[in-house]
Design a protein that fits this description.
286 residues, binds adenosine monophosphate, ATP binding, nucleotide-binding, alpha+beta, kinase, EC 2.7.11.1
Length: 286
């Protein structure tokens, strides 16, 4: 499949050398919406929520009267956390996506202290809050939501993008109750479909991301997290709790599953079994 071109953020956003361009995929194409957008154009409304590096506000774009959400990120906090790459990636990836199941990205700009991301406003808020409030969803509703998220993920994968951090907190609800994927800080454009970075939230991490050394995984990580998410829709709880005990059980389960595989050709060979994370953790080998 031909690699989808990702537009790179070429402008120097961060004060130090940390601003070097992310050089992952393909040639650069400048995106310079900062010429057109500035804070004075917006009437700032109520805060919609708080993210890791700042707040999100409801805003009105004065020239058009358009209502949107403005995500304000604090540069010092981003640099302090070494998260420049995530923010850069969020802008690069998100600005290239256009799908009804994904929060639209309208543009970005920055000043000395902050980065502003102008995005579509999701009036239904976080799916997480709805799920917590209602406990769980009916099968009909869970299936509808799972199908909508699957469609958005299928679109992402068709653009060679993995989300890698799918969870109810990163899914917003649109005006008509539809699912809208948000937060692309951990997503990555990976035409080779193979990655080696450990990321995402522990509850949702697939076993292939937990392998020791340099775990290799591909877009199928998003299928795993859709499974976890659907379980959560139906029961109100994540199938794997984020406790060390549950994580251990899950790794042990992966070991057993890889041996109890119906297809003999797919059964894990013994050399791999002996280097499985569960064995390595408990058996000191000389
Ligand atoms: P984030 O920084 O993306 O994690 O966003 C922090 C919180 O702000 C989210 O958990 C939502 O509650 C809220 N939020 C973010 N983006 C939007 C949006 N486009 N529309 C409505 N609320 C949002």
């Amino acid at each position: 499949m031909a690699a989808t071109m990702v537009q790179h953020v070429t402008e120097s956003i961060f004060p130090s050398s940390a601003a070097s361009r992310s050089s992952q995929d393909g040639p650069a194409k400048p995106v310079d919406l900062s010429k057109h957008l500035h804070l004075g154009m917006f009437e700032i409304g109520r805060p919609l929520g708080k993210g890791k590096f700042g707040r999100v506000y409801l805003v009105k774009h004065r020239p058009s009267g358009y209502i949107c959400a403005l995500k304000v990120l604090n540069k010092i906090e981003i640099c302090h956390d070494g998260a420049e790459v995530h923010v850069r990636r969020e802008i690069e990836v998100h600005s290239n996506l256009k799908h009804p199941g994904i929060i639209s990205f309208y543009g970005w700009f920055h000043d000395r202290r902050r980065i502003f991301l102008l995005i579509e406003y999701a009036s239904g808020g976080e799916l997480y809050k709805t799920l917590r409030k209602e406990g769980r969803f009916s099968e009909r509703r869970a299936a509808k939501y799972a199908a909508q998220v699957a469609e958005s993920l299928r679109y992402l994968h068709s653009k060679n993008v993995m989300h890698r951090d799918l969870k109810p907190e990163n899914i917003l609800i649109g005006l008509h109750g539809e699912m809208k994927l948000a937060d692309f800080g951990y997503s990555v454009h990976a035409p080779s479909n193979r990655r080696e970075t450990l990321c995402g939230t522990l509850d949702y991490l697939p076993p292939e991301m937990l392998r020791p050394g340099r775990p290799q995984y591909n877009k199928a990580v998003d299928q795993w997290t859709l499974g976890v998410l659907t379980y959560e829709f139906l029961t109100g709880e994540a199938p794997f709790e984020d406790s060390p005990m549950m994580t251990k059980r899950r790794i042990a389960k992966d070991f057993v599953h890889s041996l109890l595989t119906l297809d003999p050709a797919k059964r894990i060979p013994f050399d791999k079994a002996l280097s499985h994370p569960w064995i390595l953790k408990y058996c000191e080998r000389s």
